[in-house]
Amino acid sequence: MRSILLAGGIALFAALLGTRVAISLLVKSGYGQFIRDDGPTSHHTKRGTPTMGGIVIIGSVIVAYGLAHLMTWTAPTVSGLLVVYLFVGLGVVGFLDDWIKISKARSLGLNSTAKLVGQTLVAASFALASFQFPNERGLTPASTFISFLRDLSWLNLPLWLAVLWIVFLIAAWSNAANLTDGLDGLATGASAMVFAAYAVVNIWQYKQSCAAISTAGPQCYEVRDPYDLAVVSMALAAACFGFLWWNASPAKIFMGDTGSLAIGGALAALSIFTRTEILMGIVAGLFVIITLSVVLQVSYFKLTRGKRLFKMAPLQHHFELKGWAEITITIRFWIICGLAVSVGLGLFYAEWLVGQ
């Protein structure tokens, strides 16, 4: 447990201190957020708030993960390194998007094609690498099975389709996190809860691993490197939590696409490597609800030739336009996220308990 606790403590400290330094540097450089004119008018007061704070989250996780292994003199695993790779890779795509917004003084960054190409290249390389590096038990970090609480034996995909499935999951979760990042602290707080939940999932899978021959029971988990995934999950949760200190309303800094795309990638990677791809849709239910609000809004608009289902999408802006205070929306959405996390963890544990 030392590596997990060290990763969490270091990431928390690095994010708390690093974000304060980043705010000063970004303010001096004039790297502030540009606000859409068609959004809620209350957001116009946020114009000029430093953005690209996701750099701090990414840096904190890298430092925490590296130092946790160095201080315990343990080697990082392939699974852990691949999660970090996807996390950083999508963060780079988000950084380019943020940089264009700032340098060209506009609210739009990379065009949709360039952004999609960048996400796809990172996702595809991650997916292909995830089916390499088998361990002594023949397990690779990812599985060709679609998974819920563990691999579903009746949903085994051919390798090419499994790669496409992983690319889809990464695109879905990175965009879901991006859509959720619309209010001060909303995505950061929700992400901290989900990553903390996955630290619990990974610790449990490590304790009940099929690799532990002496203690493996009938409901053991065939998962590669669960302990190291717990280290990464805790670092992610703590980094988000530390960043939240400065990102809570009224935000002193925004994570930008740098942070939201990176976080979405980490969500996807953890769901894939823990064999809980569908379960993530429950644990991170808030992200799903917000994304569905956009899908429904666009679909309804096209079907009805111009009518809107919500005042504005994503969903958090609908409630803003209804007159809810931003902090009220954020806290209530956090409550929804907490309930979703609780339900997801409950299902995860209940499935193991029933099989005993």
Q: Taking Cα atoms only, what radius of gyration do you get, to the nearest Å?
A: 20 Å
Q: Tell me the helix content.
A: 55-70%
Overall body shape: globular
Low-confidence stretches: none
Write down how many β-strands occur, each being a DSSP E stretch of 2 or more residues. Answer: 2
Please identify the structural class as seen in this structure.
Answer: mainly alpha
* Order of the strands making up the biggest sheet: 1-2
Key features?
67% helix, 2 strands, mainly alpha, 356 residues
Task: Explain what this protein looks like in three dimensions.
Helices cover 67% and strands 3% of the residues. The chain has one domain. It has 356 residues and is mainly alpha-helical. Helix 3 (78-103) packs antiparallel against helix 4 and helix 6 packs parallel to helix 8. The chain starts with a helix and ends with a helix. The protein has twelve helices and two strands; from the N terminus they run H-H-H-H-E-E-H-H-H-H-H-H-H-H. The protein has a two-stranded antiparallel sheet. The model has no long low-confidence stretch (mean pLDDT 91). It has helices at 2-29, 54-72, 78-103, 112-130, 159-180, 186-207, 226-247, 256-273, 277-283, 285-303, 315-321, 326-354, and strands at 145-147, 151-156.
